[in-house]
Amino acid sequence: MTTKGTETNKKEDLLIKDRKYMWHHMSKHNENPMIFVSGKDSWIEDVDGENYIDGMSGLWCVNVGHGRKEIAEVAASQMGTLAYSPMSQSHIPGIELADKINEWLEGEYRIFYSNSGSDANEVAFKIARQYFAQNGQSTRYKFISRYRGYHGNSIGAMAATGQAIRKSLYGPAPDGFKHVPPPYCYRCPFGKEPSSCQLECVSTIRDTIEWEGAETVAGIILEPTITGGGLIIPPKEYVTKVRELCDEYGILMIVDEVICGFGRSGEKFGHQNFQVKPDIVTMAKGLTSAYAPLSITAVRADLYNSFKDNSGQNHFRHVNTFGGNPVSCAVALKNIEILENENLVERARELGRQIERKLQRLEHYKVVGDIRVFGFAAGIELVEDKRSKKPLSDEKMMKVLSVCKENHVILGKNGDTVPGHNNIITISPPFVLTDEELEKVVASLECGLMAIESE
Ligand code: PMP
């Protein structure tokens, strides 16, 4: 039998087992998943030996690119030295990483380790509630977030998520999670144009605080830019104004940096684009470039002080077994060293500028409604026609993505917050993407657009 024949059999064997035993995330029952076997830089290779540009860095996470042997070596070495010890005590990679994160945050924060972005947000909610409870404000338990924002899949993080489609089967959500309309300029929820905008998206937060009763609100959680909900970039003053509202009403500002952090925004953290200091910052994904699971809830040091009494009354009663695993912490440290040594945050910023320029050439396609770029993440909102802004059908969206795939580029599709609104192509490649590869990404999307316009 030829090698090719053997490979085909191997793939068929794998698919038989996959169909029998695997339960894939999010997708409909997936009879024909791509099976990936390796990755190098911005490319991933499947079991057929086909190579694709990973235009989404997996799930917006492999920021330093695939196949970094230096990270693998650090992981192996840490595993051989100390593979595990719980976070009720301490270990060297955990301490060093907490120090490094403080440097990156340009502030003084206490670092609480968990495993995933969802975990990090759950921890933020629990810390915020306990903080107020032990500071004589136990009426403060509510959190405000935005419709279309995504904050995770566990019950609390899902409650904060503003995407009906991901929640409808899993209710009722816990009490205390309130939503406000997003700062979605292309489809302004307040019917405004940029020329008539008076930041109603901020006033609505103030109204919600007032109507709920400020004394009941513990926190506002937001991404600097909504990413998974369709790359919704707020007006320039929005994040600063949210900070001001938090100060005015004594509410904690929780910034979800799970995607925006570690360079994706063109700065170390997304909020640094707006010169604000959050009270709590959550991070995951790019923290390790997804080479190992790890997340962080970074809490303003002075908030931590109220948890620090010797009586034991005020301890934060939360533990998770794997959070702060030394291997994951060592991986995160190496990942950050790579980001620093290879100037990858600056490179992400530069790639963002380049993609913004290149995407302009797609503006004339009648299905291109809006093009949004934040750092090195792009959202291209596709519509049936520019005037009606009717979201492009799912079928056509799939066609665009499959043409990209035929061109060996994997892109994403987002915005699936309510049925029929799954119409935003998302691009978020590794920061090691070359200029030529960037051109290939945009060219593949252009082929996809041509394909549906010629139908
Ligand atoms: N917050 C944001 C902004 C996210 O994009 C995600 C994941 N896509 C999460 C939280 C949850 O992270 P995880 O999947 O690691 O639980």
UniProtKB/TrEMBL annotation:
Keyword annotations of the record: Aminotransferase, Pyridoxal phosphate, Transferase
Domain of life of the native organism: Bacteria
One Pfam family recorded for the sequence: Aminotran_3
SUPFAM superfamilies: PLP-dependent transferases (SSF53383)
Molecular function as annotated in GO: pyridoxal phosphate binding; transaminase activity
Protein family membership: Belongs to the class-III pyridoxal-phosphate-dependent aminotransferase family.
Name by which UniProt lists this protein: Aminotransferase
